[in-house]
Amino acid sequence: MLNFLEEWSFFGGSILLIFIGLYGVLSRKNMIKILISLGLMDTGVNLLLVALGYVEAANAPIINSVNPSNAAAFVDPIPQALVLTSIVIGTAVLALGLALVMKIYDKYSTLNISEIRGLKW
Amino acid sequence: MKFRNLIALVITAAFALIILQAFTITPAAGEITLNEFGKADINNRTAQLYLNKSVNTDNKKVIYQESKNLESGSANIVTSVVANYRSFDTLGEITVLFLAAAGIGVVLNLENSKKKKFAADDSSLILNTGIKLLFPLLLLAGTYIFVYGHLSPGGGFQGGAVIATAFLLKMLSDNKFEIKEISITLVESTAGISFVGLGLYGLVTRGSFLENFMATGTVGQLFSAGIIPLIYIAIAFKVGAELTNIVKNLIEA
Amino acid sequence: MPLISSFLILIMLAAAAAALAFDDLLSSIIAAGLVSLTAAVLFYFLKAPDVAMTEAAIGAGLTTAIFVLALFKTERGKSE
Fold first, then answer.
1. Which of A72, B83, B181, C40 is deepest in the core (most CB within 10 A)?
2. Which of residues 30-49 of A touch C (CB under 8 A)?
3. What percentage of chain C exceeds 90 in pLDDT?
């Protein structure tokens, strides 16, 4: 029972977080709310990637005085290395989006995407 | 309004169905499937090569404070993946970061906009003094995190973020505190050039870009791991300067 | 440990739903920061201390600050 709970809480929870973010991106009208939802999706994807590399009762991939040899079991270090950079880039891209939102607000004085007219294609 | 939420719900549910379907497919013989939670098969993954430090050599054993001259001398395996085995990826990633920071500068176009600072006109004495005390400590913590990145959890990205947070606090509390644009640019470009320079030196002396050209030493000592600490210091300065630049642009916009 | 992590995931999902449901944008940003913070603890439970540090320093700290700065430049109005 407890194992089942742990197994599905990580996979299910992170996938659910991605879907909450997706629903937010699609349904909200406020631009800052949309960017918040994008950040939630980002967190969900990162959590799912790290959970895929988890090994039960294994160690963090660091060789130190507590764990002095590589004969012991380790979790997968590659997803961790990917997620490490993905978090930093996610924040930078969100900041770029916020800069665009601030510029749009200067021009239209609104954050509501359905009130922004004058987009000519 | 209601209709919009309904459409969003339908699209999300469709995505969810596709994902759920992928979980119910029974794999044919010989097909690779997702492992259950907690049962990732490390022995058959690339990770095993990184853990044994045996991508090019045939090594099976790494012992703390004993093993010498391994192909990557970092005790933290994540660091050895980020800053050695896949450092070309990392170079691409900090380029993305640089482009995002440059994009923010272009979009906000500070020279033509009226300035309105975020900080209150007079921040209280307690806030000012507290941050005066906290600022050097935060810089010290960030430096510790990136210098010890190859031995303990941490590294250039985390250390750079902590340093950027220190500058954020300083900018919020102190009205007169200003970082010159030119000094941020100088730090950032010096760090970027030294990263690429380390890579080019490896290309010239060892034959491939970003290859380790220094002795790797004993696993677990501060002066070990070849070029990994140098690369992580360059990354820390670059990430710190870029995040500080982003925050500064947003504050002054 | 399974119970703690499941409980934290419940908190995380509740905070994510709250971030979408709140009318006030500042409350919404703080709820998103809570999601990042619980995610950092979960990364630690998944034996990823490097990622946990990054998420705590950048995801929970800097991102929240950047959102609040942008909110100050725009409007803290009601959203739909």
1. B83
2. 30, 32-33, 35-37, 39-40, 43, 46-47
3. 38
Instruction: List chain B residues with pLDDT less than 50.
Output: none
Give A3's pLDDT tier (boundaries 50, 70, 90): low
Spatial CB neighbours of C46, under 8 Å, sequence gap ≥ 6: A10, A50, A51, A54, A75
**What is the helix (H) or strand (E) element at residue B30, kind and residue range?**
none
User: For residue C31, what pLDDT is reported?
Assistant: 92
Question: So what's the ipTM on this one?
Answer: 0.88
**Could you tell me if C4 lies within 8 Å of chain B, comparing CB atoms?**
no
**Looking at residue B212, what DSSP letter applies?**
-
B81-98: buried (b, 16+ CB within 10 Å) or exposed (e) per residue? bbbbbbbeebbebbeebb
**What residue segments make up the domains of chain A, in order of their start?**
2-58+74-108
Q: CB contact, 8 Å: B249 with chain C? A: no
Q: What are the C-alpha distances in Å from A46 to residues A7, A83, B158, C40?
A: 17, 6, 16, 11
Burial class (CB in 10 A: 0-12, 13-18, 19+), B48: middle
How many contacts, defined by CB atoms under 8 Å, are there between A and C? 142
Give the pLDDT confidence of A48-87 residue by residue, as tens digits. Answer: 888 888 888 888 888 888 877 777 788 888 889 889 889 9
Instruction: Output the CA–CA distances (angstroms, integers) from residue C6 to A42, B77, B151, B169, C30, in the order listed.
Output: 20, 28, 31, 34, 22
Residue written as token pair 């973010």:
A21
pLDDT digits (tens, 9 = 90+) for C64-74: 999 988 888 88
Whole-number pLDDT of residue C78: 52
Q: Tokens standing for A8?
A: 């599905």
Q: Is B208 helix (H, G, I), strand (E, B) or coil?
A: coil
- In angstroms, the CA B167 to CA B124 distance is 18
Report chain C residues whose CB lies below 8 A from the CB of B164.
62
CATH topology classification for A2-58+74-108: Helix Hairpins (1.10.287)
pLDDT score for C35:
93
